[in-house]
Amino acid sequence: MSEVGLFRIGELSRRSGVSPELLRAWERRYSLLQPTRSPGGLRLYSAHDVERVEAMRQHLAAGFAAAEAAALALRIEPDTAEDSAPPSAARAELAAALAAFDEAAAHAVVDTLLARMSLDALLSDVIVPYLHELGDRWERGEVSVAQEHFASSVLRGRLLGLARGWGRGLGPRVVLACAPGEQHDLGLITFGLALRARGWRIVYLGADTPLASVADAAHACDPRFVVVSAVAPRAFRSHRAELAELATRHRLCLGGAGANGANLGDDVEILTGGPVDEAERLTQLARALR
After folding, report:
1. Out of 3.10.20.80, 1.10.1660.10, 3.30.870.10, 1.10.443.10, which CATH number does the structure's domain 9-51+66-74 have?
2. Residue 219: CB atoms within 10 Å
């Protein structure tokens, strides 16, 4: 096999955020990793190994025992569903559970999906489209305040559970924060999870964060990027001077639907696509800036 695209365990550790010692233990106990050998006898790992490690971490975060988490991570190749059920069916099942205020059923749906698909697929094919549909139905008056709050609360808790430990590792750091007054943080959380799957370390500040606090955090941890998110342009326009000052000290990105109308200059990166696509774009940009 060609060694192009293969790497040693130190690089696997850097990409996954898991120590080499723990990676070796998972390989030895559960056969989680499937390395090839170089002509000199060195173990070489692939992107599939990174994805299996990430799946293992997700299942552990979801509460599975290590042996169960490894079995789930090994069940399928990354991004390949175990059955042919379309993502729309999974979204409908999740929506039905949340609409019925059935938290246990909603968690069961997510558990099943985590066993069948990668985190990227779960986010881009199920969670994010569901959130868009929920927002559209809210605007049309088809969803009650109670239903919207319940669904958001359940999903936020589950996503933050998957995010446990997302600040660990050796990858580049990124600071994520919602603009002052911005309460919608689910899109930012999904973006952070997609970045974490690509080896980033996440410094998550959450909703309604004063920009002075964002600047303090960035000064303390020296991130590769600072991302500020909002759903409406006015959240950025109201703080134009503070954002401009932040952009002079750190590489600033604006995310969310409001970023398109922010007009803060060419030095500010605009992230308005899907969380997974933008996570991949930011990762490629970071590599190009090395």
Report:
1. 1.10.1660.10
2. 11
Alpha helices in the chain (DSSP H): 9-16, 20-30, 47-61, 66-74, 87-99, 103-116, 119-121, 128-139, 145-162, 186-196, 211-221, 234-237, 240-249, 275-288
Rg of the chain's alpha carbons, rounded to an integer? Answer: 20
One fold for 9-51+66-74 and 87-162 = no
Domain boundaries, the chain: 9-51+66-74, 87-162, 173-288
Quote the pTM value.
Answer: 0.73
pLDDT reported for residue 3: 45
CA dihedral 139, 145, 147, 153 (to 10 degrees): 100
Average pLDDT of the segment spanning 163-188? 91
Fold of 173-288: Rossmann fold (3.40.50)
Residue 290's pLDDT band, with cuts at 50, 70 and 90, is low
**Tens of pLDDT along 117-167?**
778 889 999 999 999 999 899 889 999 999 999 999 999 999 998 888 898
Cα gap 114→78, rounded to integer Å: 11
CATH 1.10.10.60 fits 87-162, yes or no: no
Q: Which secondary-structure segment (H or E) carries 205?
A: strand 201-206
Q: At residue 206, what are phi and psi to the nearest 5 degrees? A: 85, -160
**From CA 100, how far away is CA 149, in angstroms rounded?**
13
Q: Is the Cβ–Cβ distance between 108 and 78 less than 8 Å?
A: no
Q: What whole-number distance in Å separates Cα of residue 190 and Cα of residue 127? A: 9
8 A C-beta contact, residue 207 and residue 185 = yes
